[in-house]
Amino acid sequence: MKSVFITGGTTGIGMELAKIYIHMGWKVGVCGREKTKFLENFATDQDKVSFYQVDVSNRDQLKAAVHEFSHSIGLDLMIANAGIGYKYKTKIPDFEYSYKMVNINLLGVMYAFEAALDHMIPRSKGQLVAMSSIAGYNGLPGASAYSATKAAVTKYCESLTLDLRPFGIYVTTICPGFVDTPLTKQNSHPMPFIMPADRAAQKMVKAITKKKMIFATPFLMATAVRLISMLPRTWYRFIMTIKIFNYSKD
What residues are annotated to the active site? Predict the structure, then answer.
């Protein structure tokens, strides 16, 4: 029986992914900071999933949880999903929150992968998945640290794809647009093409099963963002100063 560990798996996309894998008959482990969210969202599936109360920015905590799950159950798939966004956008950076975002969105992925590879490399087998974002394709106004962390995750995974393939380990980067989760409910700006979390998770699982190197969704928004990323940067900066695109607060 296959097994998957999902960070940030008690709410949002992570929760939906966990439920899909439970339905598929996998052994599932999830971690989160609050056990109450796990108890609420997995009320009928608590006996089918292992919960670990972990802050993913704490390397030792996360490694201990992943190692416990791996040694007792196994580990075929690691999904580093945990992440935070902005409650509101501002042109003046909130540096304390930005540092927190780096610790969770970027270092949290690296810690999860490090722990998973301790189990996967000796077996020459496994798959690593990171939750990035199409926000990583361009530097978005009012979202400097978020764009930076997601861009870093995407490039980090691109390198690992090349490095780990000889060890029999696949790496998949997921780059979603707006998904209807507790995280995006905090946003005060427009969210075009926003997707229900369960539908987004279904698409992600298909991409993970196919071992795609990178998967961006929804297609129209991902394509538009990719095209914008190819523009000369002076053009891009001009476009993003137009009021319809600039949602930042002074």
Answer: 146
